[in-house]
Amino acid sequence: MHELNHPYETSANPNIWLKKSKNWFKKSKDLILTDPQELHGSNYVTEEVTQASTVTATAINVSNTIDGVSIFPLLLYSCKDMGLLGFIFALALALAMTKFTNGMGKAVATRKPGNRIWSACATVPMLAMNVLMSGTSLVAPELSLNQSHLAELRAKELVAEQEIKVNDVQPDLRAVKDAEAKCKEFQEKAATYPEGSTARNDYFIKANGLYQEQNRDWKSVLAQEGQAKVPFCPLAKLLTEDAFKVSQVAKADWEKQKAQIVRSASYAAGVKQIMPALYEQNFDANGQLISGTEATRLAIQSTTSKLMTGNWNSLGFSLFFFATSVITSAGACALAIAHSYRQDIQMSFDESLQIELDEFLEDG
Q1: Which of 57, 177, 223, 261 has a Cα-to-Cα distance from 293 of 20 to 30 A?
Q2: What is the C-alpha separation between 44 and 353, in angstroms, rounded?
Q3: How much of the chain is in helix, strand and coil states, percent to nearest 5?
Q4: What distance in Å separates the CA atoms of residue 79 and residue 86, rounded to the nearest whole number?
Q5: SS3 for 283?
Q6: Do the beta carbons of residue 126 and residue 108 sit within 8 Å?
Q7: Cα–Cα distance between 310 and 20 in angstroms, integer?
Q8: CA geometry: angle at 218 spanning 215 and 221, to 5°?
Q9: Are 101 and 130 in contact (CB under 8 A)?
Q10: Rg (Cα) of the chain, in Å, rounded?
Q11: Neighbours of 148 (CB within 10 A)
Q12: Position 361 pLDDT exceeds 60
């Protein structure tokens, strides 16, 4: 007769899954966050020591969690072009930076005889990482919550870049230079012969045409019969006019297009209508930037510009998040340093106290 497994012992039991989930969560938390028990020794543990360690660990964890949350969007958008691999990399890097900062905080807070230099050295990276990650907290909300503004900034850049390209367009003067060279060559050759000579007249005609044709409309001849029917000197002049006219027409057309973009509901909408190919290279179907690197650059640029121009009102949540990060980071750093100098904390690491206690118990 077969034994039946107890229904509550099967893998489908939700209580087992809940227990496993709790264990997984605890292991993950312990891997990243600082445990209060790690901030004091075991040789002298009082209620005050436990409370101080709990407060310090909480401050370190909260501060670095806020900083980790703030830097994650920056890393995510920077790695956006990598797809799923970029998300995994950004998450892993954000967790690693959080773990590193927590580790430095723990090293600073557990200063004791024998590791004071080690603890002092940890102070520098702890402060540096807190400053760096607090700085990113100012950019993260702009990057995460203000995508439409970043898209508008990029659209304005595209318009400016296009205008530079149009203004930099130079007329093609290669045919002009060839005609000018021939004009000069035949004029110089004509000058080497005496007046009235056949050779002088032949070279003069090649350069300028017949004498009675000096007022002829060579532009019509060029349009109807081609360059071969136009003498080289008037041809050079006509080709110069045509070459510069092409450049001027391109600039005039661009000015009309730019005016249409400016009159649009937004620069992004204008670029989409006037320059659809360029729009598709930079924006997705939702009107957001395709390149995460570009989005990150523009978020940093936008935030810096608002700070430099005193346009702090438009930063809104960014300033609040930044202030929260700075306050929690400063508090955590101060508490970690102060914690390391507490006499009772140093006593908790003092092995001589444990030796004295063991000797006392033995004598008793």
Answers
A1: 261
A2: 7
A3: 80, 0, 20
A4: 5
A5: strand
A6: yes
A7: 52
A8: 135
A9: yes
A10: 39
A11: 13
A12: no
* Structure tokens given for 352: 């001589």
pLDDT band at 165 (very low <50, low <70, confident <90, very high): confident
State the Cα–Cα distance between residues 139 and 153, nearest whole angstrom: 15
Cβ partners under 8 Å of residue 309, min gap 6:
none
Distances (CA, A) of 243 to 217, 221, 255, 294, 337: 19, 17, 19, 37, 73
Nearest to 111 by CA among 348, 357, 355, 359: 348
Distance CA 168, CA 164 (A): 6
Distance CA 132, CA 341 (A): 26
Query: What interhelical angle do 116-145 and 292-308 show, nearest 10?
Result: 100
In the numeric block, the tokens 């004509």 are attached to 190
SS3 46: coil
pLDDT of amino acid 10: 45
Confirm if 299 and 142 have CB atoms less than 8 A apart.
yes
Decide: residue 125, CB within 10 A, 0-12 exposed, 13-18 middle, 19+ buried: middle
Burial class (CB in 10 A: 0-12, 13-18, 19+), 179: buried
Full-prediction pTM beyond 0.70?
Answer: no
CA terminus-to-terminus distance, the chain: 62
Lowest mean pLDDT among 27-41, 42-56, 79-93: 27-41
Q: Structure tokens of 35? A: 């445990």
Name the nearest CA neighbour of 295 among 97, 167, 168, 154: 154
